[in-house]
Amino acid sequence: MAIAEQHNSPAQASSDKASADTTWHGIILQTLKRNEISLVPYVPDRVLTPLIKSLHADPFFTTFATAREEEAVGIVSGAWMGGRRGAVLMQTSGFATLANVLASLAVPYQIPLIMFVSERGTLGEFNYGQSLVCRTMRPVLDSLALEHHTITRLDELEFIVDRSIKQAVTTQAPVALILNPLLTGGKVFDK
Amino acid sequence: MDTRNTKVMNRFDVTSRLIAKLKNEEAVIGGIGNTNFDLWAAGHRPQNFYMLGSMGLAFPIALGVALAQPDRRVFALEGDGSLLMQLGTLSTIATLKPKNLTMIVMDNGIYQITGAQPTPAAGIADLVAIAAGSGLTNSSWAADEDDFERLIDEALEASGPSLIAARIDDKPGVGTTRRDPVQIRERFMHGLGVREPL
Fold it and tell me: Which of A70, A78, A83 shows the shortest C-beta gap to B62?
């Protein structure tokens, strides 16, 4: 995470309400809020910790841990149908458990499922299993023709997240926003 | 199972008894397979949602609806085999304590729809004890049909989540849900007042 804080880019995405918090997690929080996404269940990940902490600290959000990622997908799907917007936070290995719920709930029922995936398995991965499971993620997304973006730059973060949320909602289709170690700093062996 | 002090009931009958008690546009989520087939057969309501996959997610979906609409009562119908796939959600729900969510488990100890194979829990695990141990203190077996109706009445007035388990027979579902997921979702959203038809 220390690395992420060094990424403060001068080309901050155009925002009429510039937030004081220009960390990656601060930008995601503000973008969720601006898009009225208030329900954020998650299965935690070390890299996501600052985002999870700030979501818990902000009373706008209802945020909590679930036992499995597909459980969180079920929750935000139900909430969407009830008129409340949500997003799910997870790690790469958690995404790997979702093929069934994507193919049997989110896609066929046309639910704008918004997923943030902290990307393990690349750019310095130290766990062989993580590097393997990471390789399954994009093929699964592509096999269902799902929209996905890998975010590497702080100056593109707000644009991609904001536009992707709006596209998911208006086209009633899921989107996966993959948070690359170039953005977050990732997790390395000495942490 | 014979040693337990609960009558073996019928899924369609129990589901019909639930539906007959719903007077305030309560939402009902029907889990995969026979559970939602019998919900369909009990008579379609705009506030019904039918699952065509995602085994085990009836309670999480219902939790999401309950969190989105805290003033509406939400019921979820789930089979025992489905619940076994997602036991962790019992703890999630116990932690969040939605005041408007009632979970109903239809327990026949078998995967009826795939050929009546026994579940790994059949005759050995007590799903109400598992729910109570997960923190859902208001969890009960329905002793018979009258007791089921009494528990539904209590749940409709409850100020926290309730779980009701019904021991049921090995009969298949009475109807077959129309497998049109987009229409199911859209009609449900109309039923919940989230959208108006075009």
Answer: A78
B182/B71 Cα distance (integer angstroms)? 26
- In A, minimum Cα distance to B192 occurs at A82
Residue A188 confidence (pLDDT): 85
Contact list, B29 vs chain A (CB under 8 Å): 78
ipTM: 0.97
Cβ within 8 Å of residue A5, ≥6 positions away: A23
On whether residue B6 sits in a domain, the answer given is: no
Q: Does A83 touch chain B (CB under 8 A)?
A: yes
A32 against A187, higher pLDDT = A32
**In A, which residues are within 8 Å of B184 by CB distance?**
109
Interface test with A, best of B32, B61, B87 (most A CBs within 10 A): B61
Name which residue leads in pLDDT, B155 or A19.
B155
Is A15 exposed, middle or buried, given 0-12, 13-18 or 19+ CB atoms closer than 10 A? Answer: middle
**Pairwise CB contact (< 8 Å): A74 & B52:** no
pTM confidence score: 0.94
Number of domains in chain B: 1
- Report the C-alpha gap between B121 and B93 in whole angstroms: 21
Q: Does A153 touch chain B (CB under 8 A)?
A: no
Whether residue B185 and residue A72 make contact (CB cut-off 8 A), yes or no, is no
CA B32 – CA B29 distance, rounded (Å): 10
Tell me the HSE value of B136 on the side-chain side, using a 13 A CA sphere.
Answer: 29
List of residues 6+ apart from B33 with CB closer than 8 A: B55, B79, B82, B112, B113, B173
In a domain, B4, yes or no: no
Q: What CATH number has the domain bearing residue B62? A: 3.40.50.970
State which residues form the domain around B47: 11-191
Domains and CATH numbers, chain A: 20-184 (3.40.50.970)
| 3-class SS of residue B156 | helix
Token pair 């309670």 in the structure block, residue: B59
> Which A residues in the span 99-118 are in contact with B, Cβ-Cβ below 8 Å?
100-101, 103-105, 108-111
Q: Is the pLDDT of residue A55 over 80?
A: yes
Q: Residues near A6 by Cβ (< 8 Å), separated by ≥ 6? A: none
